[in-house]
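Let us work through a complete example step by step.
Step 1: write down the sequence.
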Amino acid sequence: MRTRPLRAILLAFALASSTLTITANTVSATPNTVSEITDGVARALSAELLDPSVRANLVQLAPVTAVDTARLDIRGRLVGTIDRADTDLLTVKGLPAGSARLLQARLGTQAMADELRHGATPLVAATPSDDNATDFTAYEPGGKAVKLSTASVPIQPVVFVDVDVKTATRLGMAVIDNATHKSRRTPDAVTAGGYWATQITSIRFGDVEEPWFKGDAEIFAIVGGFDLNGDVRADTVDMPYLDDENHTYYPNQLVVHWNRYKYNAADIVFMEDDGDTNYLQLAQALVAALAYIADLGAYAPLVDAILQAMPASWWTDDPDFVDACYTVTREANWTRNCARGNGTLSVRPFWVSEL
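Step 2: predict the structure and record it as tokens.
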């Protein structure tokens, strides 16, 4: 069950957001969505699979781990299509032009690699954008469209064309940090010898909001607190290692840096990027949402404000709310469930010393 923002607050945030001039990338009206872009590439690639050498190359790669889609274009006939798609993906995801190649291809499951090597005819599809989709369109070699159900894994191997969300999330964290940090001017505190941080020693999620056709999850966190001036700040934390549900990870990752905060408390919201996230829009919404919160001389939880910064339409799929941990303190040294009971987090204080 996903939490939905309050409409009245979202309207206020939307109005405030419209006055912002954050420019991590040029935002312009475009008819393209991630699904439309990847579907066009999927159709083009399916036509190429009539070529025996292209089929043989696909069988040799059997990309369970995603590969650059260009590696499937051994004849070079899709160079323009792939280059345009990469450019368009950066635009619709609110990322700087030329910053990465995001288009990738992968098989839906490990078993599909074996089926492909045993002669099964491959299908090509854009990864469905909606976690709750009941079916999706795939293309046979030559381009004929077929409908497949999401309820079970297809018998035929399916090559999914989608977004490299690990790279997109890493770049998106920089866009968000740049936007939210520009909205305040308070530097981090400088103390002799170092400062205290909170370290994640283990983390586990029961559900990372990903169906079989989406591949690995891509989790990121937004840490909210009040800076030394009493202004609200939000810092992002990329968690590229956190792929699978019901698996415990031991990252020893620093998540809260206490030299940035006025109060001895911060909140952590865990989100998952499904591929459609526009990071520039998310950054604008966060800046607008947090600007409404004033320091009244006591710490106030920021989880609701962070969640309410997400436009209502995004909650249909992207980005997914995974869980939130309220009131993490500098002295926190515990293992506990987060608010939804979906995540289990272990943290401890960590002294970051000067060299």
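Step 3: interpret the result. Residues 34-163 form one domain.
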